[in-house]
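Two folds, back to back.
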Amino acid sequence: MLPEVASGMLNPRDITTPIREFCTSAKFYQATVFSVDLQQRLVTITRKFDGKNHALEYDYLVLAVGSDNNFYGNKPIEENSFPIKTVEDAIELRNQTLSMMEIAAQTGSVELQQKFLTFTVVGAGFAGVEIIGEINHFVRKSVKQAYPTINENNINMILISSKNEILPELNYKLGESARSYLKKMGVRIISNVKAIDAGESHVELSDGEIIPCTTLIWTGGVTTNSMIKSLICEHDKGGKVLVDKFLRLKDHPEVFALGDCAAILDTDTGKFYPPTAQHALRESTVVAQNIKKSLESDSNLKEFSYQSKGMMATIGNKAGVASLMGLSITGVLAWVIWRTYYLSHLPTFESKVKIGIGWAINSFFGTDLTLIGETKTKYLHKITIDDDTPSLKDQLVGDL
């Protein structure tokens, strides 16, 4: 749903759920993991509010840190592109898109207007196709709605694929259906090339073409989280931790891993399970059940086994492609199925209602062109917190 946040279709708050709502019986830290010592069973965190490190002991540990963007060591591209992995990324991309339309509206130069209104997406997998489809619809609709000084012919939407096809995770027919739709909507698709360099207002491709653009969006790959790579345990060739059929680290039965950071072997196919959201959801259930069994000294742990129910992607306004139970579905029906599936898997009833209302509102009203400004964070470096001091709640209970 991040592409829809980037286009303003959804409110950032509506697609997120506060962790504390799920941690009412747990102690929650808003912090960054600095290191994990598997031998000593210690997790060192860097606290958000003061930047100080704090060590936590554990009996059981779950690794579910996801993955990082992979720029393949290309610093110019990393510094001049917008990734789309977090809500913050989506907000930044939305602000960039709105800012470029505002600047373009103030110039009478065709060349400059084209440069400001060229949006280039690198990577033609699910993330790339969904973001180009959403941004394309958002920009074109916004220009018609509120920017009379912008010539719509100066809008350029470009999707870069290092392969011959797009959406390689789906079958060829669905990929070609998505390609045909995007082209019809004004998206230029460049195949069999890579982005090799980028600057403030351009991106250079491996075939020598230089595209003038001020907005480069990166969905060109992910890599294993650096903290996961640093763990002293067995990894696959990509740096993911190897786990057994119960999703435990080998030689560390007290440590479980799931999602993008775990290499989980499918014993039926001899291949590793793909790092998709539906697999991660199922993995999380198995991990929770196995920790509960371990705490109860129940040795009958649950094995992980899962068969994909299918894969889907939205490719623009009321359009999508889907492969479900061997069936290929395109168009409005695929789009409706996508929305229904994701709405049903949101964690709370409140979020389901908010997103449902958001979708309904956007179907009847114009595009939201609100620019969210930058925020300021104040760090408290001179305040010391004694971690051994009981919480106020515990102190009050003790006084009763």
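---
second:
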Amino acid sequence: MRNITGNPVSGRDFHGRRSELKSLRRAIENGNHVLILAPRRVGKSSVVLETERLLTESGWKVISIDVQHAEDEAGFLQLIYEAIDESPVELEKTLGENIRSGISSIRSMLRGFKGGAAGVQLEVAENESAWEEAANPLRAQIKRLAKAGDRVLIAMDELPIFLSRLLLRPDGNERVPRILNWLRSVRQACQSNLPWVMCGSIGLDTFVQNHGLEGSINDLTEMSVGAFSIEDATGLLQRLAAAEPEIEKLPNEVTQAILDRVGWLLPYYLQLMFHALISLPDDVRSNNYPSVEDVAKAYMSAARTKNLGHWSSRLNDLLTQDEKRRAHLLLDRVAAAADGSTREDLRGVLVAAAPQTNPEELERHLRKLLKLLSDDGYVSEEGGRVRFRSFLLRDFWKQEYAQ
């Protein structure tokens, strides 16, 4: 097993999740369209990737689409088309030509050119019929796949990243619902013959709730992915150790020390800690390496790693500048104490930063931000206190941002 930190894994590099794999596969084989729900860094994409591998071994054909780099509707459709074209499914020639033509037309129109048959001028950003004309051939192709008799799965990753970017474009408030409603219509056309799985580092459920678009995903069956059990976490660490010649086996007290330090038992944080442990320079290692003392040193190194910096930059994908500023204020306060902070204290932080703001408006901001930060894996709220879920992230945030 290789220690791959941050990127999706499958096969020999995948560990645990038997229950999740079983549930997801059952949902897919029953024809459900599935939305994977989990905070960031839980390992959603790895669960989907491993499910894809297992289904492929059973004769399924998988179309895997990552749309995070799409800049506009044309790029979005292009990525879907390319994923279909590069997959094991058979692309109908005439439909393929129509899809390419439609994408070319919508790309030209989005660049400011005029297009359309019989001299009719269309502007995609303002005219829904133009979007439909460009996207319909692709919908027809996917619908055809659903009726072909093959067992086909479409897995779409990182849709909310693309939608967040599109939302900032001119007429973004009209263009984003158009994309979501089109996707829903495609899934409905597939019925139960061609299931979809949707996941991403930003929760699609959170995105649609924030923008009042819940109806666009009400056909999706929700499935949650949580932290590792102690057994799975222990097994992961032992497998990682077995692949390292200088370690081979972690002493029980060292394994427990890593679990205690990580707290929130996600594969990402466990692997980050293990990487820090094996990366300790020889001159700072204890005489009986690996030891509990080495775990403490590895923790300090892991909490300083720039690998955690994306937790701040990711707020740009979720929030406006004003919302990001407020979120930073809340997270700074929560990070300042090991036991976190109370809601009342956090409300006071927002009041101090904007004393003229209406109290009811501030309360709405607080509720929204705490829900988002909880859903996305930054914090949790228990016993009247808001705390960072990850000890590593808390200490990283405290060092980098909280003064």
